[in-house]
Structure formats: C-alpha cells, structure tokens
Amino acid sequence: MATLKEIRKKIKTTKSIQKTTKAMQMIAAARFQKSQHQTISSRPYALKIRHLLSDMLTKTSAVPLIHPFLVGGTSIREGILVITSEKGLCGAYNTNIMKTAFEYMKSKNITDLEIFVIGKKGRDYCKRNGLVIKHEYFDIFKTFSSVKAELIADEIIKSFSQDKLKKFSIMYAEYKSIFYQPVVIKQLLPIVPPMRDETRFSFDYIYEPSRKIIVDKLFNRYLKSEVFKILTEAYTSEVASRRNSMENANKNSTEIISELSLVMNKLRQQQITTELTEIVGASE
C-alpha cells in the first residue's frame, strides 16, 4: 500500500499535469474560435464558385465543354493528399485519419499511388509503413494563408496534368461540429460535373474575352478555393479534437486527484487512530 508521502507526491504530480492540460485547452479553445470563423467564412466563397462553375458546365445552349480537369488521365496511377497534424495530444484525430488512409491504400496498388502528406504525424506514419511520399508539407498552419493553399493546389494540378493521373483525392477530417469530425475522402480531380437541371439552366452567358479563357481561370480558382476550404476544415477539426482531448484530460485529472485525496485522508485517519490507540494503551 502506498504511503502518505507517495500519495502526496502523486497528487502534486497530477496537479502539475492538470495545469499544463488546462493551459493547452485554453490555447486550443482560442485557436478553435479563430479557425471556426475562418472555416465558416470560406464556405460561401467556395459555394459561389461551385454554383458559377455548375452554371457554365450545364448551359443547354453552350457548346459541350472539353477540359483536361473534367476527365482523368490515361495512367492508372492515382494521387492522394492526407492531412494530419504536426503534434499529438489531439485524441484519435491522427489515428482515425491514418487508419482510413491505410485501408484506402491497401485497396489500391501502392506503386500506383502518388502520396502527398501534410503534417509530421502523417509523414512519420507513412515512413514507418514503408510508403513513399512524393510531397510533404510541414507547419503550414502556423501562419496559414490562401497563398499556401494555392501553392499546394498548384502542386496537385501539376502532378495531375504532367503524370496524367487517373484521379486525385484529398483525405481529411471534415468539420461538422466541435464534437464530430468524420474522416472523408473527397475527389478533387477530375472535377465531377453537376447534374443538369433543365428547368433552371435555360440561358447562356456572353463570354469576354472567350469562354475557354474564362473557364480555365474559373477551374483554377475553383480548385484553389476547394483546397483552401478543405485545409481550414482540417485545421478546425484538429484544434476541436485537441480541445476536447484536453478537456477530458482535465476531467480525468480532477477525478484522480479526488480519489487520491480520499485515499490520503483515510490513510491519515488510520494513522491517527493507530497513534491514539498506542497512546491509550501505553497510559494504561
């Protein structure tokens, strides 16, 4: 049985850890508020571009559009970008993503995959399992901006076009709520054309300087806005998971301190009772 000194030491250690987890929870909560606002703000822009792209692809009076981003390449190779975190202490966030990624990769031929990874956790997991990474990105969320998202999108477009990939997908934790971030696989390229709505699309635009130039610009802007939105969603999911993990750690540490304090008090009472018994016995 532990002595009073050992129990006091455990209580002191647990309280010290609790201070750290509380600080981390507060930091994660502050980052979550900021990233959640950024995520929600990015959605209308991406949605508007998607609607505009849908209009241009489904006009009944327009000449059928042929574009490299609408069809897969001749190669059987596929590309995938896996988004993870730089550090741990965020619950099952990284585990869920990499488990889904590994199951996805097992269903494919590894030699036919071009793997892109964001985050050191994903990089370490791939290297431990002998997976070859084509591109890896670190610390992009420290000073995250649309410029970084565009650079990643350019690399994806370059690989898809030059290597004639069959398709390119992104695997990440989609932000639904602070308590729910499911892992999803979103196909980025080729772009899946929307269903034609005959009742809505009964007119066409007048294009200046030309339809081809505008469509090329719109495709690039659409892909970059999608990558930016996905990255903000992934980071919001990460900080939400870290906040929840630290909150649970605080609750657990409080319970541990309470249980240890109860044991310590019982042990003190036993010692006091024993000492009193010995004093009474000695006096008699």
Task: Describe the protein's architecture and organization.
With 284 residues, this protein is an alpha/beta fold. The protein has 2 domains: 4-20 and 244-279, Helix Hairpins, CATH 1.10.287; 29-242, ATP synthase, F1 complex, gamma subunit (Pyruvate Kinase, Chain: A, domain 1), CATH 3.40.1380. Helix content is 59%, strand content 11%. It is built from 5 helices and 5 strands. It has a 5-stranded mixed β-sheet, sandwiched between helices. The radius of gyration is 28 Å and the shape is elongated. It starts with a helix and ends with a helix. The mean pLDDT is 85.
Radius of gyration: 28 Å
Separation of the first and last Cα atoms = 31 Å
CATH superfamily of the largest domain: ATP synthase, F1 complex, gamma subunit
Helical percentage: 55-70%
SS content category: alpha/beta
CATH architecture of the largest domain: 3-Layer(aba) Sandwich
Strand arrangement within the widest β-sheet reads 3-2-1-4-5
Largest sheet: 5 strands, mixed
Task: State mean pLDDT (0 to 100 scale).
Answer: 85
Look at the structure and give the CATH class of the largest domain.
Alpha Beta
Count of individual domains = 2
Order of helices and strands: HEHEHEHEEH
- Portion of residues in beta strands equals 5-15%
Give the overall shape, derived from the CA principal axes: elongated
Low-confidence stretches at least 5 residues in length (pLDDT < 50)?
Answer: none
* Number of DSSP helical runs: 5
Which fold name fills CATH's third level, the topology of the largest domain?
Pyruvate Kinase, Chain: A, domain 1
Q: Say how many strands there are.
A: 5
